[in-house]
User: Fold this.
Amino acid sequence: MDSNPALCAAIANHITTSPQQRITFAQFMDLALYHPEYGYYSSDALKIGFKGGDFFTSPNLCPDFGELLAEQFFQMWEILGKPVPFSLVEMGAGQGLLALHILKYHQQHYPDFFTALEYIIVEKSPTLRQEQQQRLQDLPVRWCNLEEIPPNAIAGCFFSNELVDAFPVHQFILETGELREIYVTTDSNDKETNAPCPSFVEVTGESSTPQLAEYLDLVEMNFTQSAYPDGYRSEINLAAGDWLSIVADRLQRGYVLTIDYGYPASRYYNPRRSQGTLQCYYHHRFHDNPYINIGRQDITAHVDFTALERWGERYNLKNIGFIQQGLFLMALGLGDRIAALSEQKQPLSQLLQHRDALHQLIDPTGLGGFGVLIQSKGLDNKETSQKLKGLTLPE
Assistant:
């Protein structure tokens, strides 16, 4: 298949120099996506959007997604007493479209807020950072690493859209009722076939870290129950906990808003979801084989929102609400935007295209079914009692 030979060689070298000549799936996924030279998110292979891309996100559809989020951020600023600066920290900003839509909307509709705003982008991919800097060159944005933000430095909101799903995950499988971790090693047949690109196979073993068992205790999942069949496999995203601990440490006062596809733990680890949620995206087609198209495809896993909530509690983040994206956007006024389309003077083809985009944002079987988790830190009782608009559903 269309794997990057240099990346495959780098992964194979990592395996052969490891003590047991194997690496965890999390290490494999981290190298496949984030290797500094050849990883998918580090290379020119990364393509987002409808034409020639591997996947698209809500901001690719229309500006409305960002504009409605902008309404929510403005209310957050008001609830916090209009601090200056109010820091918006976007983590994993893609092509910079969401930042563009948010900032342009604030500039046009809330100039006082725009003046008070400090917009920070945390972006690991050098390819995407370059694209963002080009797109946002006329707007007040700065880039930094999450670790460069001092502790308790942010009054405002950390937010992300489809970030956590791309964190490397550990994989496990049940073998004769016992939880075993899935490791990746090189295929011994490569030497016989003189394959130009190393190939990889899975082996199982003991857990690589006690954190896996601690995670299952955190989300109250017990896989020794008879409901789980032999061969059941799924994922554990330890990196999400590390990320959230840093975010909580940097936030002095304000909110954390996380949008992604996923489930509460009880649904994530349903016995009927016996092959987990890992998916690969290549030219808008998805499959479940991460060992092809290495370095040329995205690899993702759904988000366990129960884990984010409980980690948040451990890191002094209070759960404000969890809601589907469709309902969140409707509460912020997307329904009014759909209704107003009939009054707009534009070509019918453009109007229908815009309406279709808005409906995609709230489609419960697609983007509208994404989860929106909002957590807070450092708010007093009065501030906590003011319900966020995006969580306020009509009676």
